Amino acid sequence: MKVLIVGSGGREHAIAWKVSKSPKVEKIYCAPGNAGISQIAELVPITAMEFDKLTEFAKKEKIDLTIVGMDDPLVGGIVDAFEKEGLRVFGPRKNAAILEGSKAFSKDLMKKYNIPTAAYETFNDANKALEYLENASFPIVLKADGLALGKGVLICNSLEEAKAGVKEIMLDKKFGSAGNEMVIEEFMTGREVSVLSYVDGKTIKTMTSAQDHKRAKDGDQGLNTGGMGTFSPSPFYTKEVDEFCKANIYQKTVDAMAQEGREFKGIIFFGLMLTQSGPKVLEYNARFGDPEAQVVIPRMKNDIIDVIEACIDGKLDEIDLQFEDNAAVCVVLASDGYPVKYEKGFPIEGLEKFDDKEGYYVFHAGTALKNGKIVTNGGRVLGVTAKGNDLKEARANAYEATKWINFQNKYMRNDIGKAIDEA
């Protein structure tokens, strides 16, 4: 098979790596890709939102399967564009990707189908939102309705903070048109857990659990980022939690989407909060998480091509999805100053140390090739991932491996997976 992967981050590198392990695949392309992906795939200089050029390329090269890694093209309708041309593609159509594309839509869906989530109100008028806040209890959560690179969520501890947040999202348009509408919801406390799943429109198969670390600095301080590191599995995701979610959240979401005439095929990422009154949905994403993919995919035993084809063909019930009985931890190496302001273009040293190390991986996110050298080219530069027999061993291995890599302004959190100690 010839496979095209759309995207350029650490998630897409993890997908490309897994696809390269399939005996069914002889050639991988990635548009636009990055320096790490270029070692296993041919890079195509087309961006993820250039649907016409991508479909044209897929037809010309006789691509057998396209895998879309990113949220923007999915929400924008890339799957519809490929299907219209008779091309085989993995991901939800535009009318199903709205599950991630609009927080107001997903909250309303949960309310209608009785899927547990935080109490909320939706606003498209800043003055009404400000009025509502006058009688609200704090802390409270403000969410831009649309896509905001994982950064459109504000936790406000006071009325002043919340008013400033409304101004930021709806009036100053900090997140662009994502802030035309806004969700204000109750602040939930508890452990956060991510559960990724494969969906074929009717059947859902969940993957192993994971937990992301969103804040830029140690101790969950600093600004929200796209994610500074992950571990898998989560010790807080117990058998009881799994049973509750299977009965009240996972299948109900798939059935609700089908009921609404929005059949969902692809990946549903469930962001869960384990509250005192039981698990609740924080958010849905319509694709692999980044950096969750970097710890979940390496633990998956199945050939990813088999699973993806079963999703497209509505035969997921025939797949026995299996994961290794071990653990993985990913530590993101970022450019100092991320997520606000940072410099790019610094040479990266030590990547070759991962070449023959079983159970150690370096997934590229913001990298580029410059004069034959791999250089930094983004806020999140690399995801250093390691496996271990358990979480503590995987964590020790991942942090040891971060020492193998050097570049100017290298920055990371030093407490990824620290919650493991409390489990």
TrEMBL record:
Entry's Gene Ontology molecular function annotations: ATP binding; metal ion binding; phosphoribosylamine-glycine ligase activity
This enzyme's EC code(s): 6.3.4.13
Pathway: Purine metabolism; IMP biosynthesis via de novo pathway; N(1)-(5-phospho-D-ribosyl)glycinamide from 5-phospho-alpha-D-ribose 1-diphosphate: step 2/2
Cross-referenced SMART domains: GARS_A, GARS_C
Transferase listed as a keyword: no
Reported cofactor(s): Mn(2+); Mg(2+)
One of the Pfam families matching this protein, by short name: GARS_A
Catalysed reactions listed for this entry: 5-phospho-beta-D-ribosylamine + glycine + ATP = N(1)-(5-phospho-beta-D-ribosyl)glycinamide + ADP + phosphate + H(+)
Keywords: ATP-binding, Ligase, Manganese, Metal-binding, Nucleotide-binding, Purine biosynthesis
Sequence ranges assigned to domain ATP-grasp in this UniProt record: 107-313
SUPFAM superfamilies listed in its UniProt record: Glutathione synthetase ATP-binding domain-like (SSF56059), PreATP-grasp domain (SSF52440), Rudiment single hybrid motif (SSF51246)
Keyword match NADP: no
GO terms, biological process: 'de novo' IMP biosynthetic process; purine nucleobase biosynthetic process
Family: Belongs to the GARS family.
Name of the molecule in the record: Phosphoribosylamine--glycine ligase
Native organism taxonomy: Bacteria, Bacillati, Bacillota, Clostridia, Lachnospirales
